[in-house]
Design a protein that fits this description.
Radius of gyration: 19 Å
Distance between the termini: 32 Å
Number of domains: 1
Number of strands: 13
Helix content: 25-40%
Length: about 280
């Protein structure tokens, strides 16, 4: 392992959003707790972090999100009820995460965008580089998780890294979009990033998805970042300040990504993981 740069020890999960595209289901259930097969989206994300050797998990929550804390905790009544039965194995994976990881929580009191959510997590992260996972971007790679791929790049370059994928040009209005110079296959030094541009204004069709490695100076930049599109503090705008100094890489990750923030993507992910389970 390259030790020139501080190790990525913490992963931040912004989980305060309302999940309005899944109403009425998300009226009382956090969208991050919606299950793909038998596991909630957030658990897949935590497992991806652990696969990248990150076990300090920081979660930014909001009102009505207590189910997240309860999930990553021991349920003594449930454990007692199923102890010694053929159902006990269903808790094996979540028990392992609870044992391996340290979970901490803070609240985003107002919904002011992803940049504001990340800034809200500063108290849990401190002055060190960290990963960010958006749980409703569910990723799968049979060989090496997306976050592990990105950590390896950080260990080589020591700067912020965003995961990207090519999208149809007409969908750029849904994403942050980058432009940059390819410095090695699938890896770009970012020169520009625009939040949700109209297709005619998009600098490329390479869209940022919900995986980031961020250096700690991002917090100071976010504090000075004015609200942008939709009146929200955009992480894209803050990253652009780093990019102007040549300190942001964009990586075409290996693996599949499902937009589980949309019903179509959620159904696609469910079918994919079901078929994968049957095949295994």
């Amino acid at each position: 392992m390259n030790t020139k740069f501080p190790t990525i020890r913490k992963c931040l999960f912004p989980a305060a959003g309302y999940g309005t595209r899944f109403l009425p289901a998300t009226k009382a259930i956090p969208k991050e707790m919606l299950p793909v097969l038998t596991k909630p989206l957030l658990q897949y994300g935590v497992e991806e972090a652990v696969a990248a050797n990150i076990t300090t998990i920081a979660i930014v929550t909001g009102r009505g999100k207590r189910a997240i804390e309860d999930h990553f905790d021991i349920s003594y009544e449930l454990e007692h009820q199923i102890k010694g039965t053929d159902k006990e194995h269903y808790l094996t994976e979540i028990r392992a995460l609870i044992t391996q990881c340290t979970f901490s929580y803070t609240r985003q009191v107002e919904m002011k965008g992803l940049g504001h959510a990340i800034l809200s997590g500063e108290t849990l992260i401190g002055n060190e580089p960290f990963a960010v996972v958006l749980a409703d971007d569910l990723c799968d790679d049979n060989r090496n998780g997306v976050l592990a791929q990105m950590v390896a790049l950080y260990e080589q370059y020591g700067c912020s890294v965003v995961a990207i994928e090519e999208i149809p040009k007409e969908q750029t209005h849904k994403y942050g979009v980058i432009a940059g110079e390819e410095i090695e296959k699938g890896l770009y030094r970012v020169s520009d990033m625009v939040e949700k541009p109209d297709p005619k204004d998009a600098p490329s069709n390479m869209a940022i998805i919900g995986r980031y490695i961020l250096t700690p100076d991002i917090f100071d930049i976010l504090r000075e970042t004015k609200p942008g599109k939709g009146g929200e503090v955009q992480i894209t705008d803050a990253l652009l300040e780093q990019a102007k100094q040549g300190r942001v890489l964009a990586y075409k990750f290996k693996g599949k990504r499902f937009d589980c923030g949309s019903v179509d993507g959620f159904v696609e992910a469910t079918n994919y993981f079901y078929a994968k389970g049957v095949a295994e």
